[in-house]
Every structure is written in structure tokens, then in C-alpha cells.
């Protein structure tokens, strides 16, 4: 049996530093964007942890979240995500326990196991934790223990943090995160904004293996995808050349601030690079005017049945970014998501 309902709409933020701009301006824009999408009715505003990237200012994720929460009123604020192998679970529990104590009922803790950076920077971050995140499930369990109620004989506590029960999400771009989220009965967010290949397989696995928990009685899934909406298809496709250049630079190992759009990508990439950017990185992207974006988002909902869509919207021009968020918010009442039942053997 299936049922349909309106999906939730949320925002992923990397505090993009644009070419010709500054980190200070990027951080100010993050706060302003959070305030704006709150007014538009978005459910969540999440910030992603990245390091040593010239175009990203969200490295001190918990600090930025505190600023955003302080300048908004009702929107849920969280991490999309905290790269847990970079941190001691106790430190994360203290940081998010502090946020939850200051802003009760508004904080989410999305967790990922990738470093969010290059190997050399990961080494600088982790020091004596140089593994590949193989103990991620144990780290998640330890962190959740600090955020839960204190138990008899507990000698190490997160203060504040204990008893806050900050909602924990598992983030993933592969099947690993889907399986862990299902086993733990936690909500799952798939990172299709840069790794769309296993989106459908991961969601199917999550639903199939899901075990009800004190957190969730049934699966709850979110897909993060790149979206650029503009007043015409032509304008949106031109704005999208900023994203094409961004991922082209990543492929080439050339970390730069977010570039301005160009009239054409011809001559900027070779056929192999173009295929990689369009399909391997941005295969789930939806770019266009309102009707094109509406059709693209509805197609995603029809194919995945996700409860929530999170937008990753990179524009060189901040006003165009805000306009994109506005257009998508206007489409929300017309979108429907169909609840998908897990397949059983």
C-alpha cells in the first residue's frame, strides 16, 4: 500500500566563497540565506564540514551553526554533516549539546564518515586517528551515548549534552551509510548532490533493512541534490556553468573560489571531463525555469519516494541564489511524494 503527501524542503549550505569575494562575506551570506529560507517555509538549514578548500568557509561547522541559530527563530539548524572521524565523539557531543541547550528543539546532527578534505589535510585534522573511518559505527554509538540519558556508573559525560537527545542522522553517498542508518533505526540522508550513482540502491537498502527504534518507527529518507531555478531555462543553464566549473576544478585538483558563470563551457573541458561532471558528479541535478524544475523534482519524488528534498544551490551571484530558493519554495505545494514500502523477501 502507498500514500502520498507533500514533501519537506530543506537547504544545504557550504558557505561558498566566490571569486572576487571573501570568507567574511560568505559567512554573512550564510546567515542571510538561512533567514530567507526560514521565511519561505524551509524545514532545515544544514551546514557541511569541509577543510582546506578555497571556495568553502564552513570548516568550523558548529561555530557557524550557532551564529545561524541565533539569527533565526524556527527553522531546524544542523550539520550536513559533521565528519565524525575528524573528531572525538565527546567533543561533538559537547558542541551539539551546547547548541541544543541554547536552541532547544531546533538542532540536528548529521554524521558522515568521509574526511571532507584531501588526505594530507585529513592527517592534520586527525593526528593519531589515521584510519579510513572503519570504526564509524562505534563512534556513532559512543556519540549517541553521550547525548542520551546518563546511566549508572557513567564516568565520562558531555556537559552540556547528556540528556539532550539531539536527533542524529546518518549521511551517506554509498550503501554503507544506508545499512548503518537502517540497523540503528535512524533517519538517512543521501548525498546525491555530488555522488548520485547509488541513490536508488541505497534508499531501497535502507527501507528493506530498517529496524524500528526509539527514534523512528518507520524509515525517513532525504535526498540532497543540486538545484538551480531561474526565471527561464536559458538563464538557469547559464548559472549552472558555475557548478560545472566547480566540479571540473575538483576533478583537476585545482581548488578555487566559486567561479562566475560563462556563456559556454566549450573549450573549458574535454569530452571525458564533461561526461564526468554531468553524470558522475551532477547526474541528479535539476536546472531550469519553474516548470522544468517542478518536473525534475516531481520525477525525483516519483522514483525515490523520499520524505524530504535538500537543495544544494551554488551561485556566484547571491541574489540569484536567493531567487532560486524562492522559486523552488513556490513549487512545493504542487509536489507530492509517494511513500514507498520496503520490499520483503
UniProtKB/TrEMBL annotation:
- Which residue numbers delimit the Luciferase-like domain? 20-307
- Which organism encodes this protein? Chromobacterium sphagni
- The source's superkingdom equals Bacteria
Record's family?
Answer: To bacterial alkanal monooxygenase alpha and beta chains.
InterPro entries recorded for this chain?
A: Bact_Lucif_Oxidored, CmoO-like, Luciferase-like_dom, Luciferase-like_sf
- Pfam annotation, one family: Bac_luciferase
- Name of the protein described by the UniProt record: Luciferase
